[in-house]
Design brief:
13% strand, 43% helix, alpha/beta, single chain, six-stranded mixed beta sheet
Length: 192
């Protein structure tokens, strides 16, 4: 069966695949340009996102917007989502069973979007998407190629809130993401 964006939204709205459905205010579907060539994936919605049902609307969202602006990009150019669609209590790391319960939604979003570049925001997303032993401090900004995707990771905006000295590192990563976008747009094929 071929799912549409509306199908995914309907499924997420009533999802009860894990216990987070009992504590959430609203599930958070990805948002942004559904023709984007860049997809940002974080680990899970925060408290503000849980209340509003929109990804990256809190302080982390402000940092992300500033980061994008400093690199000459806007949210309307990209698609932003999370592995989990519900907020884990106390902002704890997602449990393995929660990630597994939500992962099909992320697969459908990726299938429908067909991005050329996937950017993992933070350790948790990078370890689920790129490699289980991914080290964000030493491997951010490196590239992996898989199934016609160029994958990379950078610091989660919340990490930049806690440690502003990482902001310039994340900015450099986004500058390289823009360069990679230009490089891939010049190529005829996505085969890696």
């Amino acid at each position: 069966m071929q799912y549409t964006w509306d199908d995914i939204e309907r499924h997420i709205a009533v999802c009860s695949q894990c216990s987070l459905c009992r504590t959430r205010c609203r599930p958070v579907m990805g948002r942004g340009n559904r023709q984007a060539d860049i997809m940002l994936i974080a680990e899970a919605p925060g408290a503000q996102e849980d209340r509003q049902g929109i990804p990256f609307v809190g302080n982390s969202g402000k940092i992300l917007d500033r980061l994008l602006q400093d690199c000459g990009m806007e949210r309307k150019e990209i698609y932003i989502t999370n592995i989990l669609k519900c907020h884990p209590p106390d902002n704890r790391d997602p449990k393995e069973e929660e990630k597994e319960a939500c992962f099909p939604y992320l697969k459908y979003e990726t299938f429908l979007l067909k991005p050329r570049i996937i950017v993992c925001l933070g350790r948790v997303a990078a370890q689920r998407i790129i490699s289980p032993d991914f080290k964000i401090t030493s491997q951010h900004g490196t590239w992996t190629y898989r199934k016609n995707f160029a994958l990379t990771a950078t610091y989660h905006p919340s990490a930049l809130l806690r440690d502003s000295s990482k902001y310039n590192l994340a900015k450099e990563d986004f500058v390289e993401i823009i360069k990679k976008r230009v490089e891939l747009n010049e190529r005829k094929s996505l085969d890696f």
